[in-house]
Amino acid sequence: MSRRLVPLILLIVVFGLIIGCAALFPQATPTSPPSPPLLGEGSVTPGPSPTLRGRVSPLPSPTLLPTAMPTPTLAVAPCSRPDDICLTPEDVRLHPPAPDGPGVLEVFSGDQVTFEIKAHNIGAIGSASLPVAVYLGEMPIARGQFAPADLSGQSEALLTWVWDTTGISGPQTLSVTLDPDHTLQRGDPDRSNDTAQVQVQVRPADERPIPEQGAHWAQTETACCIFYYVTGTAAERDLAQLTELADASFAEVEARLHEDLRERLVVTFVGRVLGHGGYAGGELVLSYLDRDYAGGGREEVFLHEGTHVIDRAFAPTRLTLLAEGLAVYVAGGHFRAEPLPQRAAALLALGRMIPLRQLADNFYQSQHEIGYLEGGAFVHYLISTYGLEPFKAFYGAFKNDDPRPQSEQLNAALQQFFGAGLEEMEQRWLAWLQALGPQPHQEIDLRDTIAFYDTVRRYQQLMDPTAYFLDAWLPDFSQARQRNIIADALRHPTTPEHIALETMLIAADAHFDAQEYSQGERLLQSINMVLDTVQKVGDRPRFDDPLAAHYLAIVRQVLAAGYEPQRITLTGTTAEVQAIRTWPALVQLNLELRAGQWVLGH
Prior knowledge:
single chain; 602 residues; alpha+beta; Immunoglobulin-like; Zincin-like; 4 domains; five-stranded mixed β-sheet; 17 strands
């Protein structure tokens, strides 16, 4: 039985950050990431199109209604030399994101705008402390400086909520300037490329997305948590189920770890996808929306993040591999409930295992699903072999001021507590996994799970970059609440193309959850064919594949009727659509394909 809340669309999985989970922010890939393989490392065998339940004849390509999608206004101007810092318009990102998608710089009057700025060749100056300033015409808006490079090696300047657009409307010209006072002594021989001008459209306040209009922050409290949410959202609609599940999940973590939750956790629900569904820091921020394309189960979210909070009682300092591994172990899986030893045995059989030493030192840079699965399975092995209390003593023995790489710290602790170093313990663990025997079902499921999440991240990189977990700005929502900032909690791209691809991802995840692998693979193939047409962030995708074209046609028809699609179930020549007209009430619409066009039923 599915562990999701039914009939709600609860497709959210949190990757841990900051406390036991690090936040990474590399620049989005400038060219289209490669399509992930769906069947091992080979090409995908096309499935029937577009019917996903049962067998029917292939449908003709639908007649698509004409539409206009804004084209990017940013041009790439490469730097002339590697020893010279420079800036291009494409290096400037605005938050909240535009509903028309990446490459379109637009906000709404009244928005508190954040600037995320990257620069080329910043290493040429010998320091990350590069000053930067933003001007509206001749008027300075804000000043700041670039932060030191994070684990990804990227450096950026983040000027948070510095431009108050209240009372402003129409096109605005902004200038972003590196080293505005010309204080650099080296690394900037050509000052002509230190400034980038960007054109920003400030739309009237009454045109802002409907869910934001009249919305405000609200809160409720339970035994485990203080919950914050925005009124008029799916989180407010489903609050009773969410709070009940959170209380039960945190109690389960307490029981599994033999520890008590010492203080209530602050949980903030946001109505947009961030990374794999949220992040944990001083508080837990969770994506909760009906069209959540990131996949996963709600119960696993609370169990995973509850572990990151409760384990502080016996481990103030934790190694990343072990911290994420313990959270996956306690949750009984990462994105969903799964048998960790058998799943890891399948990973071993597929030849996809990452050596533990490498994983310990590069956890968040490693393939996401593999890293979390390995961590969870390794912790499962240690606890099942040596017991929970000895593991907790080992887990809590690390020191914050230890300068050694995490792999060396892990090696020494394993030797101290269990009598075997990292490589020897890894060999024991792998032998234990091999003894479990073949896991053909898990191999199929694991291949498709990896392909699904690789596709999710590829979509984010190209179509929803502010959600991509290695490049996302993660707002401090405690400050957002104090300033009554709503847009950063809700706004995300909502073009027909975005909605079509997101509903396809949701449909693929549902097929994989039901073990309908060929149908899910066909959807992933179609999605990646669309993404193949996007060469860089901001490009307009083409829906040449018939299955994708049907989804896009359905989305356009539903939008034309005044609804926003959230979920689409396509069966032969009929489609069921979960949609919203009056937020946040879900209704079901039925469509039929007639003479090549999708038509709303009565």
